[in-house]
Amino acid sequence: MRRWPDLYERAIALLREKPRLAGAAIRKTDEIHGAPDTETLGLRDITNRSRDGTDRLLLQVDQWAADASALLEVNAAVNAALDRRIEVEVAGLRFTTVYDDGRSHPDSTEGAAHRSDDYQMEAVSK
Mind listing the pLDDT tens digit for each residue in 47-87? Predict the structure, then answer.
């Protein structure tokens, strides 16, 4: 049983709705090796143990684009697609994605711009 049902499917559907992301390849980050030569989004779920001992789930979205300007556009579209837009229900509780953190990465491939953003699954009231 998947703990976060349909998380990837819902994220991909919302990302595909954005015209700016229409041509981007979207796959699990583990399937991407090196810096892609086309605009690419990689999705990964990460569970971290928080200070209070509970599990904290993040949806990490890696973004690659040809240059910094294109990456800014891609990043804006990703944030508009995902921030507070995915809702899942687990054990009778509803959760939504909330932007948590982001960072830029230097890539070894010349000309590729790379960024990762984290969206925390946060409980919402019914």
Answer: 765 655 556 688 999 999 988 899 999 999 999 999 988 88
Each residue of 28-43: b (16+ CB within 10 Å) or e? Answer: ebeebeebbeebbbbb
The answer to whether 74 touches 39, Cβ cutoff 8 Å, is: yes
CB atoms within 10 A of CB 62: 19
Cα–Cα distance measured from residue 104 to residue 43, given in angstroms and rounded to the nearest whole number: 16
Starting at the edge strand found earlier in the chain, the sheet holding 93-105 runs 25-28, 40-49, 55-65, 113-124, 93-105, 87-90
More confident residue, 56 or 108: 56
The answer to whether residues 119 and 61 touch, using CB atoms and an 8 Å cutoff, is yes
Encoded tokens for 56: 């904290």
Is residue 96 within 8 Å of residue 126, measured between CB atoms?
no
Residue-by-residue DSSP string for 33-60: -S--SS-EEEEEEEEEE-TTS-EEEEEE
